[in-house]
Design goal:
Distance between the termini: 157 Å
Structural class: mainly alpha
Strand content: under 5%
Order of helices and strands: HEEH
Number of helices: 2
Number of strands: 2
Amino acid sequence: MNMDHEQLSRRLEDLKVKIAESQKTILSLEVGIANRGAAAEDSVDVYTRLLSNLGLFSPLPPPFQDIDLRVELNTAASQTEDLLKGPDVLQVIRPTLNAFIEDKRSERAAAESERIRVDHELDQLILECENLEDDINEMEKKVMVLNEQVDDLREVSLLPFGLICYPAF
């Protein structure tokens, strides 16, 4: 009977050690869960701020006007399915955001194409203006030469017929 008592005492000590280890593990896990909960709340806050900064709160532009992208974290939930309130991330939010991104990319590409087209037209107009400026400069030179010739002819026409001076050679 003494032997049974010793075995039971050892087992009791072993169980007390295991209980103490389990309590330490539980405490460690609770701290880990609290840290992860805080990190998840921070992530949801960052996500919400991004939605706000990008203007993606309801109502969204068509064709997404019926979708609400907001989510809330419920760290007190007992079931994992109840941790995140809002539309399903994988089935609703991610595809919606991907479609929205694709629409914005195509709008940006269209705007960039339009900018390139306008830049090309502007370059063509600038080239035409430069060509016209060159033509105007040429015409001004010709007009100046003609004006000089007209002035010379006026001077000659004002001289009496017999007083034409010939240059000495």
